[in-house]
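> example.struct
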């Protein structure tokens, strides 16, 4: 299914399957607490994605060395919507509720940011963005069994990275 790079069997660089980077919300995705993302895509790019298509979920863009977190299946064709129309449930669906409950796992740029307040601000501004709804098919990254998303200096246990993730290739 995946074309692996010789030096890294979990490389996603050579694989033609489409991917979406979840860099800022990777922890929520790995915790299976995310099922929607909003993107500032152009029409041409958004049109490449279809309902029921399986997409790679990565921790950063592939061209910047992204690692495969898992696979997601699009539950709807991506569509354009004003953020003013975001349903209340999307605070949780974006992974924000989970990240607010686990603030030590927020990216540095979101440290100290109340994501509920950010969500409400985005609704008030009402920018039109591309909405991508999905279900998690398979997760290859997982929380470190020693850290288990607990609040302390992740990565110091010797098993996981600084976000508390273990990638499948580390388990073999």
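> example.seq
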């Amino acid at each position: 299914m995946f074309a692996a790079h010789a030096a890294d069997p979990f490389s996603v660089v050579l694989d033609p399957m489409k991917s979406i980077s979840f860099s800022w919300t990777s922890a929520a995705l790995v915790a299976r607490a995310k099922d929607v993302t909003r993107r500032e895509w152009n029409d041409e790019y958004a049109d490449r994605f279809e309902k029921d298509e399986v997409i790679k979920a990565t921790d950063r863009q592939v061209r910047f060395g992204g690692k495969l977190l898992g696979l997601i299946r699009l539950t709807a064709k991506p569509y354009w919507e004003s953020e003013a129309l975001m349903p209340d449930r999307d605070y949780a669906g974006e992974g924000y509720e989970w990240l607010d409950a686990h603030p030590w796992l927020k990216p540095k740029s979101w440290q100290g940011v109340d994501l509920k307040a950010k969500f409400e601000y985005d609704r008030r501004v009402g920018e039109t963005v591309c909405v991508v709804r999905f279900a998690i098919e398979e997760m290859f990254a997982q929380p470190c069994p020693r850290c288990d998303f607990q609040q302390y200096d992740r990565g110091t246990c010797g098993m996981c990275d600084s976000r508390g993730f273990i990638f499948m290739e580390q388990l073999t």
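> remarks
The longest helix spans residues 115-125.
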